[in-house]
Each structure stands twice: as C-alpha cells, then as structure tokens.
Design a protein that fits this description.
Blueprint: E1 4-13, E2 16-21, E3 24-30, H1 32-37, E4 44-54, E5 57-63, H2 66-76, H3 83-92, H4 95-103, H5 107-111, H6 118-146, H7 149-164, H8 169-185, H9 193-210
Parallel strand pairs: 3-5
Antiparallel strand pairs: 1-2, 1-4, 2-3, 4-5
Helix pairs in contact: 2-3, 4-6, 7-8, 7-9, 8-9
Length: about 210
C-alpha cells in the first residue's frame, strides 16, 4: 500500500496528475482543492495517497493534506459512495465545511454539492455524523497539545497581514491554514512568518488565475 508520493510534477490536470519518481510516472487522481495547491510543472510535489483496488486495477488518489485524505477515506465507507463520487464531493466543498454540514445535519448544503442528491446527502449524515463528531473531539484535543505557541502566533500574524492587504478574514484564515498544511506536508522545517505569507499569497493568486 502506498502512503505518500514525493517526486517531480510531470503533468497536472484538474482531476489527475502524473508524478515522476526516479523516472517512473505515477498517475494520481486528485480533487480540485488539491489541484489548486499543486506547484508548477517540473517542481517537487508531495501528496498523501489513498490506494484503491478496483476489480483488477490499482488506483491512486492524492491529497495535499492528511485531513482531506482522511475525509476521502470516511466517504468511501458511505453506502453508494465510490472513489470518483468522493473526489467529486471534495472538489465541491472543503473538508472542514463538509464536516460542519454533516455534523449539523445540513442536508441543503450537502445537496448543493454538484453530483450529490438528497439520498446520498441523507446517507452522509446518517452514516458519518457520529464518526465526524468523535473524530473532531479527538483531533481537537491532539491539536491543542501539538501546536506550538510560536506557530499559533505566526498563524495570527499571517492572518492579520493578509487582512491588511484586503482579504476578508475568512479567506485569510483559509489561505494561511492551507499554507501551514502545505509547509508541514513537505517537511519544510521551522515555520517562518514570511514564508507562510508568501505561500498563502501565491496559492491565492494561482487560484484566482485558474478561475478567471
């Protein structure tokens, strides 16, 4: 079972990428959220991997964050939800927002995701609500123990810097968190405020360019 891939980004498309690892190209399916976090072609990329066996075929699904990978895994446990639908769901809503909708029994929000009908939305709530709530309690407890005071202060200062540049607070918090997740996924070493701000601005600029 493949847990992660680190290599050079050979090709990228909204639904899949090819990662070159020592001359061997791995085709990896991705969500739009992960696609927006990808570097330029030829640059090094790191993806958390979920390995899925389908009939006699092995498929790889890649994610920029462990949180998205784990939400994908939970979605696969829902009746009638295969990997392609799970990717589609995570392309239409961020993992945290999806967890909020499931935990809050927000059927209307779930149905608003392209490809999700009322029946699937109800299954998501019925089959995942308790798991989401339990996992969130455990994750929040671990996160409070794990996050260093310095990182919390850097997050606060980076959000403040982005809001001063014209971001609304919600977008600033998302951009900064994505930057922190990206740096940690790539084992970038100590977290530096300037690097967090630079990466948050770059990811946001790339996203805006793609959506024009």
């Amino acid at each position: 079972m493949i847990a992660h891939i680190r290599g050079n980004l050979s090709q990228k498309h909204p639904d899949m990428v090819i990662v070159d690892v020592n001359g061997l190209g791995y085709l990896v399916f991705v969500t739009l959220g992960t696609f927006y976090q990808l570097p330029r072609d030829g640059d090094e990329v790191f993806l958390h991997i979920y390995t899925h066996m389908r009939d006699s075929t092995l498929e790889l699904y890649g994610f920029s964050s462990w949180t998205e990978r784990e939400m994908f895994r939970l979605l696969l446990g829902v009746t009638g939800c295969g990997p392609r639908l799970a990717c589609n769901i995570l392309s239409g809503i961020r993992p945290g927002e999806l967890a909020d909708a499931i935990a809050g029994d927000d059927i209307a929000r779930l149905v608003a995701i392209p490809g999700v009908g009322k029946r699937i939305a109800e299954r998501l709530v019925v089959e995942l609500r308790d798991k989401i709530l339990t996992q969130r309690i455990e994750t929040d407890t671990r996160a409070m123990d794990r996050v260093e005071p310095e990182v919390r202060e850097i997050r606060k200062e980076a959000v403040s810097a982005l809001t001063n540049l014209g971001y609304n607070r919600k977008d600033a918090e998302k951009a900064v968190q994505n930057a922190l997740d990206n740096l940690r996924s790539n084992n970038a070493g100590p977290v530096i405020l300037e690097e967090v701000i630079r990466l948050a601005l770059r990811n946001r600029a790339e996203w805006l360019q793609l959506t024009r």
